[in-house]
Q: What sequence folds into this?
């Protein structure tokens, strides 16, 4: 079974995303901020990361760029989920290495399908 890490500081969004991915058949870990996320990334084998942009300690764009630059994490697909839905933000996310960019409120079917597509590759 595949494992996803959700990095999200909103409890409501975290629970929504977790429930959606669990119903889609994934194991789910969560982190409230970048520091907690990096600890979990270092101690678990992850198949996909769902990353918010606005976090209390660091930008999701910054975390994405850092993970894609490291050999041990560069192949983990990253989906950025953000309320920042403008084209500039989407391009910025992809420039930092995101494999997909979804705008909140999340379409749950789209999230599960995006995860499945990334796990196939």
A:
């Amino acid at each position: 079974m595949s494992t996803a890490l959700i990095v999200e500081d909103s409890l409501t969004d975290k629970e929504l995303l977790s429930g959606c991915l669990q119903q889609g058949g994934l194991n789910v870990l969560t982190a409230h901020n970048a520091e907690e996320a990096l600890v979990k990334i270092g101690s678990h084998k992850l198949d996909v990361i769902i990353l918010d942009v606005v976090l209390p300690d660091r930008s999701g764009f910054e975390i994405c760029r850092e993970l894609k630059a490291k050999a041990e994490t560069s192949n983990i697909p990253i989906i950025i989920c953000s309320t920042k839905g403008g084209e500039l933000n989407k391009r910025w996310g992809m420039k930092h290495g995101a494999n997909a960019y979804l705008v909140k409120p999340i379409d749950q079917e789209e999230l599960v399908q995006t995860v499945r597509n990334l796990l196939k590759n």
In short: The first strand starts at residue 3 and ends at 7. The chain has one domain: 3-114. The chain has five helices and five strands. Helices lie at 11-23, 34-43, 60-69, 87-95, 108-120.
